[in-house]
Amino acid sequence: MQSPARILVADDDADIILALELLLQQAGYQVLTASTPAQVLQFAAIKPDLVLLDMNFCSDTTSGHDGLQLLPALKQLELSVILMTAWASIDLAVQAMQQGADYFLQKPWHNSTLLQLIADRLELRRLRQRQWQQQQLAQQERSAWVAHSEVMQRLEKQLSRIAGSDANVLILGESGVGKSALAARIHQLSARHSGAFVSVNMAAIPQQLFEAELFGHEKGAFTDAKHKRTGRFALADGGTLFLDEIGCLPAELQPKLLRVLETGWFEPVGASKSQRSDARIISATNSELSSDQFRSDLLFRLNTLVIEIPPLRARPQDIPALVQQLLPALCRKHHRPQLQLSPSAWQQLQDYAWPGNVRELQHVLERAVVLAEQTELHSSDLALQPSPPQPPSDQATPLAPMGLPPFDLQWHQQQLINAALQAAEGQQAEAARLLGISRFALARRLEKS
Ligand SMILES: Nc1ncnc2c1ncn2[C@@H]1O[C@H](COP(=O)(O)OP(=O)(O)OP(=O)(O)O)[C@@H](O)[C@H]1O
User: Fold this and answer.
1) Superfamily for 6-130?
2) 360 CA to centre of ligand 1 in angstroms
3) CA distance linking residue 173 with residue 245, whole number of Å
4) What is the CATH number assigned to the segment(s) 159-310?
């Protein structure tokens, strides 16, 4: 149920405050009252839905200045304001509207007119808020996701068709590569966008709580179940359920997940009745789902469509666009002037291997923005560890006594993997084929690197 709208009544006349308070409370509103400009500002900070503002806080003046002087501060907080005065004149009304009042009403008022006016203003405010939220979402949607490189452009082209279908999606990719962000985008672009997007990180749930987290539980179902709890499947009904790190799902729960995917039915822990959920499942993993840990029938249900997001090092063309999007936002967040990157800093960002992908890029930039002493960020401000590690050239290695040149196996292996990933445009399966190893073996080596 929606909570009642909150209205601030600001007047220096105690009788008027009382009359308005009674009228508005009876109409179901929550009422705050203020009898001095200082109190008005105090209550305004908690953002009431509407302010009924007397233009004269001192009844011996007819200038209307007190109310008018408060208007800019109230409008800065984006509050809706209805100005009221006993000395209505066209000039005052024009002045008040020019300064941002939403409406101007003469005292004494008719109760029914005032209530209708309040209802209209509140409805308009709600509509504007909804519209604004939708615009913000659409704007974030358009501007936040960077897909500049060719490989990401190809992925973009597929995305609207993937989002338009109701098929389950499995997203593959290293940590920090954008799997959660992509899952949220798929939901936003899908016909389910007005339903909930419910996200569960399977790696963060203690083993014994998995079932209750996913399916909910009844009160008293187990020792700590003091209240009935709605599970994620029920919350995602009509929307999308994002199961991050799906590989962490314990084996004993896999048949239960399979059942709900096949039939839509599940039982909350301790419940005697089954419940139904119509949720689209998007899952994600950063490691291969091996058949000895993960049931293949469940995998077939989850991976109707598979999207692999390549690591950032395989698409350096995305780095400038990501930086251009992230840097101004970080400067605003930390109240810093707009910062630029020096050519050497740009070069370093391009050369670095980004084992933590886009998330690591965000952290590196954030740290640099906070600590920067000048308006240009230099490579030293980025504090990146040289990457990949250089092979030791002047040190003797265990191979030297055998007459072999210094050799760093780890480093050379990393070079080969990077080259294969670049040649395969970030597709791990193709890179593994080029290297002549299994995808699982490649994923393990990438994790270690
Ligand atoms: N292409 C992109 N454009 C813009 N921002 C991105 C992009 N990819 C990732 N990000 C941002 O990088 C951060 C990490 O992304 P996200 O959490 O989606 O990664 P992940 O692959 O789900 O990580 P993990 O495997 O650790 O859960 C988020 O803040 C996300 O918004």
Assistant:
1) Response regulator (3.40.50.2300)
2) 10
3) 11
4) 3.40.50.300
Which residue is listed with tokens 């909350």? 268
pLDDT digits (tens, 9 = 90+) for 260-314: 999 999 999 988 889 999 999 999 998 878 777 889 999 999 999 999 999 999 9
CA of 179 to the centre of ligand 1 (A): 6
Nearest residue CA, atom 23 of ligand 1?
Answer: 176
Cis peptide before 108 (omega within 30 of 0): yes
Q: How confident is the model at residue 421 (pLDDT cuts 50, 70, 90)?
A: confident
Ligand 1 centroid, distance to 321 Cα (angstroms): 14
Tokens 């049931």, residue located: 295
Instruction: Show the ligand 1 pocket: residues with CB < 6 angstroms.
Output: 144-147, 173, 175-181, 244, 286, 358-359, 362
Q: How far apart are CA 184 and CA 327, in angstroms?
A: 22
Same fold for the domain at 6-130 and the one at 159-310?
Answer: yes
CATH superfamily of 402-448: Homeodomain-like (1.10.10.60)
Report the separation in Å between the CA atom of 157 and the middle of ligand 1, taken as the mean of its atom positions.
Answer: 19
| pLDDT tens digits along 198-246 | 889 988 888 888 899 999 888 887 877 777 788 899 888 889 999 999 9
The CATH class given to the 313-382 domain equals: mainly alpha
pTM of the model: 0.61
Type and span of the H or E element at 307: strand 305-308
